[in-house]
Design goal:
The structure is a single chain. This protein is of the alpha/beta class and 377 residues long. It has a single domain (25-102, 137-168, 175-223, 232-338), classed as 3-Layer(aba) Sandwich (Rossmann fold), CATH 3.40.50. It is 22% helix and 18% strand. It has eight helices and 14 strands. The protein has helices spanning 36-41, 61-77, 90-95, 150-153, 178-194, 236-248, 267-275, 347-357, and strands at 20-22, 29-31, 46-47, 51-55, 80-85, 98-100, 142-147, 158-162, 210-214, 253-259, 279-285, 302-308, 325-329, 334-338. A nine-stranded mixed β-sheet has the order 8-5-9-10-4-11-12-13-14, with helices on both faces. Helix 5 packs parallel to helix 6 (236-248). It is globular, with a radius of gyration of 26 Å. Its main location: cytoplasm.
């Protein structure tokens, strides 16, 4: 006699974690950076267990804003936070997080008439980078003119590491930099105490994500010396990034690190630390450069360069539709869009091109000696 009895088992069931979603490319668990347009560019979000490196702009202001978006998204999603900094007090950064917008105020593209392209009209039909969050609330918009309520920070676990208060007596030439060792020890203890490790014997029923944000890692305040050659640099920073990424591989943790690579005089050292991170994004600000007054870039604040994208559970990596990207910061949105330069349709350019393709006098059989004669055919 057939029976409808089935054994109830929890094997194979995926545990839902708030603020996450699986990737459509490799089924990797993703979290939002707090900037929906950045999530779309890098493949849907940041994979859990990876390290994101942001190469700071010259003044570091835009990289710091991206770090605040990353932390604010963690507060809204209910994730744990770990913030480390050397030049700015971590408590000051947490008090300056942007305020999340309501669902009705998210869509600002339809009401903003300044975003329409007036010169390059042919590009209006082309799709921009998807910057609107979907209906499942993966990613939010934030108002930079308002500060997040401090009561929301009391609902999540927050841990801070102020490198300025930590004394260091080791030489920067030593591989075992005391600041990096203490920071790595704090990260390991936070992962163990918070139950974020995936290899623990006892797993918690309700799992969550830990977001690690490290501001201006590798600067002089962290004990680094910016020498002229790669030999002059300390191996402490590559060792720390290598150990950090190995720790994150077996935990429900995602890390974002901002590094001022413009202070490194040797490009070989920059390439070394880029290879030790999963995702590498570079910001090139127009502030203080000739591009700031260039009318071609008047609608943007800088260029957004993709240096490296992760390869997880696949042989290939996600490739965006275009690598010519630019960013602009508004009051309610940090958007990343495809850079569309207006075509040069001036009268002088057309005349120069016409003269360039015009043959020389006497080059054809049915041609007079003068190049501008009406008898030429």
């Amino acid at each position: 006699m057939a029976t409808s009895f089935k054994k109830k088992s929890s094997r194979g069931r995926s545990v839902f974690i708030p603020g996450t979603r699986p990737s459509l490319h490799n089924n990797q668990l993703l979290v939002s950076t707090g900037i929906p347009s950045m999530d779309a560019v890098i493949g849907g979000g940041v994979a859990v267990g990876t390290v994101v490196m942001i190469e700071e702009d010259n003044y570091g202001s835009y990289a710091r804003q991206i770090l605040k978006y990353f932390l604010a998204e963690g507060v809204v999603s209910g994730h744990g936070l770990f913030l480390a900094s050397a030049d700015i007090d971590p408590q000051t950064i947490l008090k300056d997080l942007p305020h999340p917008l309501d669902h009705g105020d998210d869509n600002t593209d339809s009401t903003n008439q300044e975003d329409t392209m007036k010169i390059a009209w042919r590009y209006q039909q082309k799709s921009k980078v998807q910057s609107n969050p979907s209906h499942n609330r993966f990613g939010h918009y934030y108002d930079l003119s308002r500060v997040m309520d401090e009561k929301k920070l009391d609902t999540i676990p927050v841990r801070m590491f102020n490198a300025a208060e930590e004394c260091t007596s080791d030489s920067p030439k030593n591989r075992s930099n005391s600041l990096y060792e203490k920071l790595l020890s704090e990260v390991n203890s936070t992962i163990t105490d918070g139950g974020y490790s995936t290899t623990a014997a006892k797993q918690q029923q309700e799992r969550s994500i830990l977001r690690i944000a490290i501001h201006s890692l590798g600067s002089q305040l962290w004990g680094e010396e910016c020498g002229a050659t790669c030999v002059d640099f300390s191996p402490a920073l590559p060792w720390f990034l290598y150990s950090l990424r190995a720790t994150l591989r077996s935990s429900l943790v995602v890390c974002m690190v901002t590094i001022p690579t413009h202070v490194f005089q040797d490009s070989g050292f920059t390439h070394r630390i880029e290879r030790l991170c999963d995702t590498v994004l570079a910001l090139e600000s127009f502030a203080g450069s000739d591009k700031e007054t260039n009318p071609l870039y008047r609608d943007y604040h800088g260029l957004f360069n993709i240096v490296r994208l992760p390869r997880l559970n696949t042989l290939t990596t996600h490739m965006p539709d275009s690598l010519d990207l630019a960013f602009k910061l508004k009051r309610k949105k940090f958007s990343i869009e495809t850079l569309h330069l207006p075509p040069d349709l001036s009268e002088s350019v057309s005349r120069n091109q016409e003269e360039a393709i015009r043959p020389k006098p006497g080059a054809l059989a049915c041609q007079t000696g003068s190049g501008n004669s009406k008898l030429d055919f």
